[in-house]
Each structure stands twice: as C-alpha cells, then as structure tokens.
Amino acid sequence: MKKIIPFILILSFLSCSQDDYENSELNNTEFEPYFDFFIEEGIIRGQDYTNYNINFYLADIDFNNAVGLCYQQYERIIIDREYWNNANEKDKEWLVFHELGHCLLNRSHRNEKSNSGDCLSLMKGRENSFDCSENLFSSLWRKYYIDELFNQDTILPNWYTNNQEYSINYDNPLEIVSITNLNTESYNSTFDFNNTEKFVIEFNFKDWEITSNNLTSVLADIYFGGYSFGSAPLSERGRLHIRNNNGEEYYENIEYNFNNNIKLTIRKNNELLQFFIDEQFIHAMEIESFDTNLLKASFETAINIDIEIFEYN
Question: What are the residues facing 243 on neighbouring strands?
Fold first, then answer.
C-alpha cells in the first residue's frame, strides 16, 4: 500500500499556512485509502505517482464555498472538516481525486458538459456559477471520469454516445401494458425488472399545466425497481432527476425547459439504461440489479396519462 510520507512545512516561507484555517490538523491517515486508490488508478493508466508526497489537512475552510484546496508548491491539500465528516464515500473519493488532479496532475478546472448536462470531467469548478450532473455511483461513469482525469483528451465512451436515439427498431416487441387517457392520481403495477433484459417503460403526462393551475408542484415521476426518474415542472426552476431509494443522485438538471406534455421514457438494453424526456436523450448508465418489482407513479391531483410498457429482442 502506498504510504503518505509526512512533509515538513517551513511556515515562514508560506504565503498561506495551515494556521490560516481554524482547527487545522494534519491527518494523513484519514486520507491514505483515497490516495492509495488514486495511485492504483494511475498505475493502471501507465502513470506512477508512488514516490510523490502529499500532506492532507482537515480544517474549517471559508474560501468562496470551497471544500478543498491544493497548494501544489508545498505538496499540501486542505479539506473542509464539516464537508468531509458529512460526505459519503463516493463524494470523498471525488474530492480527493479532484484535489490530486490539481496537485499531482497539474490539471486546472474543466467546466464543460454534454448536451444533456452530464459533467465531462471530475475537474469541474464553480466559476461563473457553472453546474453539471455527475454520476458518482455508476462504475461505467467512474471509469470514464478517472480515464479523463489522467488523460484530458479522453472522449465520452461508446456506451454513452451510441445509445442516444429515441427512435430505434424494436425486434418482436411484446406488449405488457398499453393504456391511453388514464385519468388518475396514482398508478401501481409490478414488473420483473431483473429477469427482463430489454424493455421500455414510457409515461406520457398530458396537459399538466391546465391540471395544476392551483398547485405549487406536480411531480411527474416513474418509480421503478427501487429507482425513480422524474420531473418537477412547477418548481422554481424546472428539475429533472434520476436517483435510487437511498437518495443517491445519478442525474440532476435543475433548469430544464418543460413542454406542456411530459413524456418520460426508460429503456433497458441488457445492463445499460437510457433515459429520455420528450423524446430527447437525457442520461445513460448501467444497472446491475433492481431492489423490487414495484412500478408506480403518484401525483397531487388526477392527471391524464398514456402508459406504454413492452419487452423487445
């Protein structure tokens, strides 16, 4: 295992020492596993940083909402204590990898995103209020992000770019559900998600603006197998999301411009899922298993829906 070798700081030569932050403490042990992961991922990609030394500090940071700071010339990274203590493992890994991207890979921020809002890099910054959606819970996305971290010329992989067409030829479709003009406050059904290799689930929510004149929100959501894909068109800013029952976010777009009809489409092709809204590609990722067979939708008031569910070869 790669060890973080302590680096003695000569504070008189620093323009900004760890004493500039309240309750600063050297804590390499806490960060060592994530540094080891970084070293291992670099070696896989032909880059060996085994002999590089970095000191990690926990401190109370108040620096333009930053949660991590890299001082490359002093081989030092400072992490905000409150953020770290409340972060999940994926966020912790992302933060350490991001700061090591600055300190070891000499990377600057890359504020770019795909047409549907997916982050193109773990090195995204917050300049000019930049925002994008990062899927930290997908192994496919993790591999892409780490590939790009070590090689910024990395392009989006084929599993993402080759599955963005809404209209494709479905071989021998097997209709499971076909409902038109269902006016309801809820829909509940079951579907064998785990034993169905290829399927399409589509909910078309119609005339939500008329239906929701006296409501503060109408959530057009599909709950499927322990996940949800949905929209909140009446929120202060239009919101799209994909998450699981644990609240882990796979995709979020908080400024989506909704149509009067909202069509949400989920397509599974073996282990890959593609998501569409209003027949426009939104996101892709893998799903290895589903928690439940439950399929449902619920609303604050009755709304007109078309539902299509079918398997295909």
Answer: 228, 249
